[in-house]
Design a protein that fits this description.
The protein has 443 residues and is α/β, with parallel strands linked by helices. The chain folds into three domains: 2-195, Rossmann fold; 204-291, N-(1-d-carboxylethyl)-l-norvaline Dehydrogenase, domain 2 (Orthogonal Bundle), CATH 1.10.1040.10; 293-442, NAD(P)-binding Rossmann-like Domain (Rossmann fold), CATH 3.40.50. It has 16 helices and 14 strands. It has a six-stranded parallel sheet, with helices on both faces. A six-stranded parallel sheet has the order 11-10-9-12-13-14. Helix 1 (10-21) crosses helix 3 (51-60), helix 8 (197-228) packs across helix 11 and helix 10 packs antiparallel against helix 11. The N and C termini lie far apart (65 Å). It binds nicotinamide-adenine-dinucleotide.
Length: 443
């Protein structure tokens, strides 16, 4: 099938590439000339495991193309919108990118086309897109909601082997097109769930908000564990063994970030407010997350008796989660901001995300970016861990100890076993677990 994807960011590039991979003929459009030029030259503008290989392969096979010119798409059967929907000043998803692209697309429709919205959008957006397009063209079209559930860091795999594919449309004709489009991706284990537009749009917000709630709930449990002397790891395995709860997404930490959870929880809450519904849980989920992002800073203040001025910390990890260079709403940004305010110096290392953080803090005299996880700990007062990159999971502790000024780790991702930290003689503070204390004279 001939397909076009408007917006070639995380979702658009991964979707377009995977659709080409299963045999569709795909053209991706983006207004960002630099991005399109990079892609045309075989450079991938984002870091996503496995993506580069697939892009190059499908470009070579002539199944995947990139352009800045909407006219180049010709007459595709399906046009995806994978455009940003950031919060507007009010917390609502801002639909300006989606609606303006829909208007542009409407002007170049040539025959019946299915317009598929992959962006995360409020209930009622399909109808808005339909109205905008209908105002511009007499050509027959349908608008379909098809939310995307891929996770950054696993995006290619998630797209090729999704848990489910959700398609919302009341048009029988569009349903048949969508079934044909997704046939290579569906199986007995991967159902195509057909529903109406509103339910499909709501499904995406409900899924992300539920996952965010799981994280905030576990963070609350972790905080309470610290107070009452329980160990959140034990509690986690204790409750995860209950099939109704399950083991996944029960890891406490320093809060969720990224381009989706924060904005989607906020947007769902705003949908509730606009409908005079007081969605109490969502407010709590957001409040807990905001507080949790300050957890490491609070631990530092406590340990150093509020005297952080002049201290130097190594920050391991900047991305909001491992295997991505995405720093949107990353807890590391709050940590950096707070440390700068308190007069501490930060030496930062991340395998992929440093360039993005440099765009925000690059010129600040209190932050320095270092190229590897060992050089960054040289002569620092302590290590702070903000992202659970695999390379941080089993460091050479002896080497770290030789380089660092004091053997102290504040771990926002619970990477290490407490017994190990005791044996390695580190002062070690993590989330929801006992602190391994080294007497101050030892550090
Ligand atoms: P992104 O910012 O990475 O990419 C959006 C792209 O659209 C950018 O490259 C931008 O230049 C381009 N663009 C903007 N206006 C355009 C126009 N008029 N024509 C062509 N291109 C245009 O965003 P993303 O992370 O891919 O997210 C897109 C949507 O998918 C959002 O609604 C998001 O909530 C949702 N989503 C994201 C993820 C994720 O993990 N990133 C997962 C699921 C759903």
């Amino acid at each position: 099938m001939k397909i076009s994807v408007i917006g070639t960011g995380y979702v658009g590039l991964v979707s377009g590439t995977c659709l080409a991979e299963v045999g569709h003929d795909v053209i991706c459009v983006d207004i960002d000339k630099d991005k399109v030029d990079q892609l045309k030259n075989g450079k991938i503008p984002i870091y996503e495991p496995g993506l580069e290989e697939l892009v190059l392969k499908n470009v070579k096979a002539n199944k995947l193309h990139f352009t800045t010119n909407l006219e180049d798409i010709g007459d595709p059967e399906v046009i995806f919108f994978a455009l940003p929907t950031p919060p507007d000043g009010d917390g609502q998803a801002d639909l300006k990118y989606v609606l303006s692209a829909a208007k542009d697309v409407a002007k170049i429709l040539k025959s019946y086309t299915v317009l598929v919205n992959k962006s995360t959008v409020p209930v009622g957006t399909s109808k808005k897109v339909k109205d905008v397009v209908a105002n511009e063209t007499d050509i027959e079209f349908d608008v379909v909601s098809n939310p995307e559930f891929l996770r950054e860091g696993f995006a290619v795999d998630d797209f090729l082997r999704a848990d489910r594919i959700v398609v919302g449309t009341s048009s029988t004709k569009a349903r048949e097109v969508m079934k044909r489009l997704y046939l290579p991706f569906t199986s007995e284990d991967i159902p195509l769930l057909l529903m109406d537009e509103a339910s499909s749009e709501m499904t995406k917000y409900a899924a992300n908000s539920f996952l965010a709630a799981k994280i905030s709930f576990m963070n609350e449990i972790a905080n309470l564990c610290e107070i009452v002397g329980a160990d959140v790891d034990e509690v986690r395995s204790g409750i995860g063994a209950d099939e109704r709860i399950g083991h996944r997404f029960l890891f406490p930490g320093i809060g969720y970030g990224g381009s989706c959870f924060p904005k989607d929880v906020l947007a769902l809450n705003r949908i509730a407010e606009l409908n005079d519904y007081d969605f109490k849980i969502l407010n709590a989920v957001m409040g807990v997350n905001d507080r949790q992002k300050h957890t490491l800073i609070n631990k530092l203040k406590n340990y150093y008796d509020n005297e952080l001025d002049g201290k130097v910390f190594a920050l391991w990890g900047l991305a909001f989660k491992p295997d991505t260079d995405d720093i949107r709403e990353a807890p590391s940004l709050i940590i950096i901001e707070e440390l700068i305010k308190l007069g501490a110096k930060i030496k930062a290392y991340d395998p992929e995300a440093a360039e993005n953080v440099k765009k925000i803090f690059g010129d600040h005299s209190l932050i320095e970016f270092v190229d590897n996880m060992y050089d960054v700990v040289k002569d620092v007062d302590a290590i702070l861990i903000a992202t659970e990159w695999a390379e941080f999971r089993a460091p050479d502790f002896a080497r770290v100890k030789n380089l660092i000024k004091y053997p102290i780790i504040f771990d926002g991702r619970n990477l290490y076993d407490l017994e190990l930290m005791k044996n390695e003689e580190f002062h070690y503070e993590s989330i929801g677990r006992k602190t391994i204390v080294l007497e101050k004279q030892q550090v």
